[in-house]
Every structure is written in structure tokens, then in C-alpha cells.
Amino acid sequence: MIKELRQKFIFINMLLVFLVLIIVFSALCISNYRQARQESQAALQIALNRHDDQRPPAFSVGQKPPEDLVRAPVFVLQISDGSTRLLFADNISVTEHSLQQLAEEVLAAAEDQGLLRDYNLRFLKKNERGGVKAAFIEISGEQAAIKSTLLIASLSLVAALFAFFIISLFLSRWVFKPAELAWQQQRRFVADASHELKTPLTVILANTGILKANRAETVAQLWHWLENTEAEAKRMKQLVDNLLFLAKSDDAKTPVVHTRVNLSDVILSSALAFESVAFDRKVSLNTDALAAEIYIKGDELQLRQLAAILLDNAIKYSEDQGIVTVSLSIRQAKALFSVHNSGASLAPEDLEHLFERFYRADKARANEGYGLGLAIANSIAELHRGKISVESDDEQGTVFTVSLPLYHER
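Given the sequence above, the corresponding C-alpha cells read:
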């Protein structure tokens, strides 16, 4: 799919560039042709206005050529009473036979000016007393200039198209790299979600088969299988709810109730709710660094979910007899909420993918969750115009920090 999109992008880009270049080069060629024709017509007009004994204008080296200088070979005929006379010829020779033929062509022409293709001449005539005066100019130089312009335009067109094709190749890779990455993430997301949903569905179907096979037994005797089915159904519901939340976040449709929220109370109450979990895992939960009365604008339920995710991960992955420290402070008009736990650090390759969906840094604890918690926490932070980051090393342990804009009274 991405390959087809890149090919379409390159084709459309090259087509647009080709049309633009064709228009530009066509305008250039037409402009040069008109200019050359106007110069020839001006030279013909100058030749008609010259007197028979008048010499062509001359200029010295280093000076600007005069405006009435005729650069192409030109000659003038006088046609009267059936006779043709050559008045003058500059840098060209004309035979008597050619004079008669040219005179016939000019007299037969309906227009006062035109092109004699058989002789490669352009002419301009005017009626005078007793006859017709006609000026001719040789247009080989005009044609050579036009051909040279066409050749240069064609070569430039080919070179420009080749250059734009190379640019389009690199540009298509750069433009579609985010889309290709998103497509790969989506495919992996669908595969992981299908795998995670398959496990509870398999258990539920197996339990249902056991219940059907033991119809004669009482509910009390089959209560274990019913509880197991309920537990798997709840796990599947939680997974579906998490997936729905992330899908709405991606589509910017997750509702955020923008109210004034006391973030200090939210984090403190969330930490108190995890005291029993920390005690059960023999982990100390320290909340002494929580600043009071820090307010932000957002959704209180989502902020509680964010705090719960970070606290749950910190306690779950803390070392035995470890310490989890929760802090809240203000720095540069931002509320900084951090959760720090002691213990083994995360590998650098894990830090890069920690907020991706279904990613688990500790593969040994894959059965304890779906790998969606930190992805949801990241989405909640982004919905509140905030940012979440993580740092981890062997000496300090692991700390997650959430930066959220403070609430300001209007």
C-alpha cells in the first residue's frame, strides 16, 4: 500500500512538474520567436525607408551599435511598369532571374508582408508612385536562433525532469516515512490486539465446553469454572475499554472535561489507594514531596487514571524492600508530577519503545498486563497538553515525569 502511494506521489509530482516546465519553455520559445520576427520586420522597415544612395549605418569598435543597424542580409527591389530594379543589397547577391521571380511572388501576395519559404526570405512591401517597393531579409539566422532555443529548452526539460525525478524519489521516502511507520504500527497493533483477545476467548470457550459437558452437576460444583469465565470476561472487557480509549485518543474524540482540578489532591488520594498494594509487595510508598494546592485544567478522572498507571508500574517493578517516591512541584509555569522507584534500570532499547502499545519491557511478567498502561498514560498527558518522559539508570533507578500546564485564572 505504501509503495503504491509513493508511486502515485512520484507520478503526480512529475506530471505537475512536466506541465509547468512545458508551459515555461513554450512561453520562452514563443517569446524568442516573436522577438526574432519583430527584429526582422523592423529591419525590413528600416530598409524600405533608406534612400538608394544611403549607406548602411556604421559604428566604431567599443561603441554601442546604432538602433537601426541591420545584422541580417537585406536587399530592396523597385517594381514599376513591368520592370524590376535592385535598389541595393547588403551582404547578399541576387541574380536577374531571382529578381523576376521575387517580384512576381510579391505582386501576387495579398498581404503587405509575409514569408517566402522557397527562398528562405521574409518580405515587406509598400506602394509608391508608379510601382511597388519591396524589402527582403534572409532569415537563416532567425531560424537558427529559434532552433537553438528549442534545442536548449528540450535539453533543459529532460535534465530538469531527471533532476526532479531524483528529488521526488527522496522526497517520497521522506514524506511517506511517518505514514509507513504508522502503517507498520497499526498492523502490529492489530496483530497484538488479536493475540491478546484470543487468549481470554479461548479460556471462555473452554470453560463453556466444560459446563456443557457436565450438565448434571450443580452450579456449586461448577462454580470454579464460572469464576474463571467471569475473570477472563472482565480481563477482555478491560482490554477492549483500553483499546477504545486509545482509538478515541488517536481520533481526537476522547472527551476532556476542562475543569479546575486540584492535582495535589488527585495524586495524594491515588497514592493512598495504592498503600495496601505497596504493603503487600513490601514496598515503601513515600509521598512527602507532594506540594499542596497545585491546580491544573483538565479531566479529573483521566488524571486519576494517569496517576494510577504510573503508581501501579512503579510498585510492580520495584525491587524487594524498595522505595517508591511520589513528588509534585512547580517549575517554569508547569506542574511536574514524578514517580520514582528503586531497582534495576531499564535497558536503552526498552526506553525507546516504552510508550508503544502492547510493549512490555519485562517479558517475564507478560501475564500481568497487556502493555497498554503507559500508552494510555502518554495519551492522557497529550490530551492535557502535557508531556511524559522516563529516565532510568542503575544508580538512581527509574523515574517517570509528567509535565502539565498550570491553571490560570482569566
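The chain has a mean pLDDT of 82. Try to locate this feature in the C-alpha cell string yourself.
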